[in-house]
Amino acid sequence: MADLTQFGQLGPAVDSEASDGTVPPSDPIELQEHDSTDPFEISSEDAEFLDRVTADGSAPFEVTYTSDGRVRIHTGSNVGVLTLPSGTQVEVTPKASVTSLLWTLQYAFDTPVDSMGYKTKFSTDSSFFDAIGVLFWNELTTVLDQGLHRDYVRTQAVEDHVRGQIDVQRQLQRPGPQPTDFAVEYDEFTTDTILNRAVLSATRALVRLVRDPTLAGRLRHEEQRLRQFTSVRPVSLEAVNRIELSRLNEHYEMLLDLTRTVLSREFFEDITAGENRALALFVDMNNVYERIVERACRAAASELGELDVEGQGSIPTVVEGPHARSMRPDVIVRGPDEQAVAVLDAKWKPGVSASDVYQLTSYIFALETDGALVYHGGYEHDGEESVVDSEYSLRSVALNTNPSVDSYGDYVDALERSARGYLSSVIRE
């Protein structure tokens, strides 16, 4: 499964002389993927924040300065919202390659939101945070309706009777010559687990971020429900990333993905930066698109009935020795005999690069099958085909991620129809 919490590696900002106030070119600053602002004046507080979050090169945007101290913000393939300490907001939206950001995220996460009745266009009326918040709310209510997962949690306490094991070291440190209570350690079967604490932390963060008052109210209501069973305590991202779901809590799968996104390094919060907190939440569209391609192909293969789809499958390397590396293509399509009939690599970008072709070619040779580079809607070279080693087909294919439709159902139909068109051609061959 694609990880939605990864950043591209970007260069750090340079030092500059910042002004006393931020003067954005628009309010909010609106950018698309792979875009840049015009230079604008920035306060020292905002500049310090940007320098801090871009210092290690892992931020979803890049910052440069002009000779007179003005700043430019450069975006990559991440979409989302950045709020500076001054309150200046930067919104990064997808290019015309998607009809609706909410529909795109909804399809990638396989999350129903029809009951919410929210606007599905990315705009100042329906912010990026609202798109994430709607998906999160739906998954959270589903989990709460099915019941919070319980697990055994190691607990240390002081009790008036022996429970579990006496913590000898702590007991000896107890004051008084003859203490009447006991320092004990035991396993408690409880809902107050790291998983539920992480979900609560993400809920509390989103309550502060979403713009829509109805959505904020619904999230706040679910927060109160959670707090009846789960304590508000810090949860490290490392601990969240170590969570492994089982058969007993697999209904948390999508909610855990969204929780990791909100609590990951993509979410910055500077509580010391003046009156306003500096916030950012971004999603890498490369990883979102990998999910979309896999899900669309699964749906198409299921309807065709002759194919099976394997996402992020591991395949043998064609290199032996110390330079060997594991290969994990985004999608492997297999026939009834379980032999690969096509290998797909999802590409959320406008054109073919040499590295794209070399990567897919290595998959083709390893699996001895045809391959396709799968681009988003609007890709002008859709259908182009080359031949690898006089034997295998290498195509460029575009999924219809930007159909002219009025409903999410029509969006899904158009998207999966384009995937079905490609897989149908694989069967015919």
UniProtKB/TrEMBL annotation:
InterPro entries: McrC. Residues 1-37 are annotated as: Disordered. This is McrBC 5-methylcytosine restriction system component.
